[in-house]
Design goal:
Layout lengths: L1 H76 L2 H46 L6 E4 L2 E4 H15 L7 E6 L4 E6 L2 E6 L1
Antiparallel strand pairs: 1-2, 3-4, 4-5
Helix pairs in contact: 1-2
Length: 188
């Protein structure tokens, strides 16, 4: 009779773990969708900022070119000593164009940093709930058990599994997994 009670308890634990894992998978999908949406928003904002920065740089470049051409025309009208001064102005304009390009690069880097920060923020918001099984004074973290089972399967097989089931047996100090009809175990 004790054997039936133990089997019933094991079945209840297995059912509970299965329910918890299924809930975790659903929550993970929701979080992944949220992260994907946030990433898309960041990508769109990045593209918009890059386009605006590029347009401003082109506008500035056109202005600088117009100024350079204007200065060159004036320099040709003046005498030879004035030509040297026009050349300096042209060099300054070229430096201004280079500075505008550098500013564009810096703006792009700032946009990429902002995108990375937004992604990290979205990931920080998307923390998964932790499920802990307590048995005879020991704590077993289900997310760590699942991660260890995935690692163990990855070491055995280089394939990505389609179906993974984990059965926890705290009285044995083991978690047994079945991944695509391949089985193994990990220590708790």
């Amino acid at each position: 009779m004790a054997s039936k009670s133990k089997k019933s308890t094991n079945a209840d634990i297995s059912a509970t773990v299965r329910d918890i894992l299924n809930t975790g998978v659903e929550d993970t999908k929701k979080v992944a969708e949220g992260v994907k949406k946030e990433t898309e928003k960041v990508k769109m904002a990045t593209a918009k900022a890059a386009a605006e920065t590029k347009a401003k740089a082109e506008e500035k470049k056109t202005e600088v070119k117009a100024k350079v051409e204007e200065k060159n025309a004036e320099a040709e009208k003046k005498t030879a000593p004035k030509k040297a001064e026009a050349k300096k102005t042209s060099t300054a304009a070229t430096k201004t164009v280079a500075a505008a390009k550098a500013t564009t690069k810096k703006a792009g880097a700032a946009v990429r940093k902002a995108a990375a920060a937004a992604k990290e923020s979205a990931e920080a918001k998307a923390q998964e709930p932790r499920v802990i099984v307590q048995y005879q004074g020991n704590d077993y973290y289900l997310d760590e058990i699942l991660k260890n089972a995935k690692k163990a399967y990855s070491k055995k097989s280089k394939k990505v599994f389609k179906d993974l089931r984990v059965y926890i047996k705290p009285e044995e100090g083991k978690a047994y997994y079945v991944a695509d009809d391949n089985f193994g175990s990990v220590d708790l």
